Amino acid sequence: MATVAVASSSQLAADAGAAIADAGGNAVDVAIAACLTSMTTEPGVCSLGAGGYVTVWVPGTGPVTIDGYAAVPGLGLPDSRLGEAAWEVNLTYGGGVRTIVGYGSVGVPGGVAALGEASRRYGSLPWKEVVEPAMTIVETGFPLPSACHHYLESSADPVFGWEPHSRGTFIDAEGNLVGRGDTIRLPGLATTLETLAIKGPEEFYTGDLGHTIADYVSDHGGSLNRADMSAYKPIVRPSLQVSLDDWRIATNPPPAVGGATLAAMLMMMNDVRHEGWDPISVKRLVEVQHAVTRYRHQHIDTSGEITAAVEGLLQMARDGTPPGASGSTVHTSAADRSAIGCSITMSSGYGSGALPPGTGIWLNNCLGEIELLPGGIEQAQPGRRLPSNMAPTVARTEDGRVLSTGSPGADRITTAMLQVLVNHIHFGAPLEEAIAQPRAHVEISAGGYRVAHEPGLPVGEVDLPCRSFDEPSMYFGGVAVAEWGPASGFVIAADPRRQGGTAVGGA
Q1: Which of 35, 188, 289, 432 could form a disulfide with 358 if both were Cys (CB 3.0 to 4.6 A apart)?
Q2: pTM of the complete model
Q3: What's the Cα-to-Cα distance from 431 to each of 44, 409, 465, 480, 497, rounded to whole Å?
Q4: So where are the chain's domains?
Q5: Phi and psi torsions of 215, nearest 5°
Q6: List of the chain residues with pLDDT < 70
């Protein structure tokens, strides 16, 4: 009988997680193995040079979120160093994206530290064993996923093509992009994973590997240096909690903004009727997204005190204030028969393009995500955690059900998760249907707020301008859900927009 279910951003990752379940791993072990596989087999979209969060909820304890997101580098350096060796590029992805790349866009990568801390606190298998599936896959090579190819169509040249040894991975001498499904072998990555498996996560920060990463960026004008790497520590925080019907939902707390954004929208959607997305319910969905997005851009994204600003957002949602008055990421969800839920989201931003030779690790551009650093790189404070849209989430009920969920998708993460949770919990849709239903997202354009939406969603009552997509798109996220209940057993689903994968394992 299966003991763990996992949903991830690829079938390759889900199968890696299932292999760890077969070896006796729990939901945390499985999620880490699947996440490491996603981080190393979805080039361009994510890498070991990412940052992220791990939310874990063990029965009988309070939920926690391990903060392993990128920190501002530059410890011991003059302030003038921040922002050097970085430049802005424009991508056609998702209708147009501005971001900053280069050595100076690299934040301190905390993802490996967060996974190591989750393994140490909650895993049941040795770290070395959990790393092995990803290492085996990388050694033999893997097919380039469709999601990666789609992103690389707009990013291969401006993001990953400015550094010659990076460019050659994706673009041949004639300027042709590597094909969808072509076998990828990343020089040095298998050795990197083997080193991490043997020496542990700390090797990434204080060992030769960490020194190689830091020295490479620093020697090329970036701010990341050995002091930043050695000072980095994951932070364990109580998760932010909110209720929806019979479910208690735990998500990412401040200083990340994604969890609070999701929590506020869930609170404001509680009064929506249970029939589904008719024109009036869609109107309400858009009003809620609009209100929360507007509050966030006016009060949170420009605030030096994010925690206080987030509390104001949550208070607005609790009070029922009437609305309407005015990167690249991977995710893994796992749940087991012991009712442990584990949700992991990792992001490299849009990618810096910097690839320390011999490591196989593309570094993040978390300092270059313009929408999250409106004051610019130069205003950031070394050592400070950067804000993030990520919201890995675990939910449970009094009768013993547990659900783990999350999504990639930059600022579409929270709106995608909002709609899936409302579809499944509030409207009662089965998981696959809840994920497949069309989505809407309130976004900011040059002309103000507008609604991007997929076909099939009735938007006739919406008061904002609309931008319609011709078909479901990975622009609207890639939600993955793993659920277990004493009566229902395992239910798992992954977003077809991302061609995600699911698996069960254990005996």
Answers
A1: 188
A2: 0.93
A3: 29, 19, 30, 10, 15
A4: 4-236+331-379, 242-248+257-328+396-479
A5: -65, -35
A6: 94, 301-305, 320-328, 374-375
